[in-house]
AraC family transcriptional regulator
Amino acid sequence: MPKTRQAPAAAPSLPPPSSGPNGAAWFPHGFQFDAHSHSDGQLVYAAAGAVATRTERGVWVAPAHRVTWTPPGFEHAHRFYGSTDARLVTVPADLCGELVAHPSVFAVSPLLREALLALTDRAEPRPGAVRRLLAVVIDELAETPEQSLHLPEPRDDRLRAVTVLLHADPGLGTTLAELGRVAGASERTLSRLCHTELGMSFHRWRTTLRVHHALALLSDGRSVTDTAMECGWSNPSSFIDAFTELVGQTPGRYQAESRGHRR
């Protein structure tokens, strides 16, 4: 397995994601690429750390054991959490039809991880090698169910006023009725809008937002207890349950694995 490299002190040298070629670089916590689009598809894998991809349809977060997929033509931005070993892989447009036609996140199997690292760790050893590795990547993704930590965003101005407040402070404990008074809508109206525009309940959306925030804090080295408190949970146990349900592992295990990848 290729060794994960140490993070450099200098600014990352990886070209912007819109420029095309596969590449690898370490990014500091909070580093971001502004909104852009490209004619090919793109996979972004954080071999260590985490990456969030934002589009007009919302935000997708990929911890170190998942990979983000953005099809051609979607304007999107990336933000990195923790010291992130980022791997960017371009999928030529003629191969994109074999993957889903919307942004998503997939689990990374051991074989998929090795293929992504090989595509970004070295120059093409023989003509056609990159294309053959991409075929392995696509085969793995085609057989992997989506595991999207997707946070959709509303279009309705009233519900958007609520989500903007919560984005600014994910730990805010205000009820939907109280938020409705700020947004000029009843609790019932906002609850209905959550289901029609977000495809989930208000509680589920806020929990997902808090888990997104928790991933960023844990990736930056914050303790599980401090993360739980800052993200609005009244005790670490309820935070651990919610995090495990959405991410597929406990926050402690996620943090330990992230540290292991960095080493």
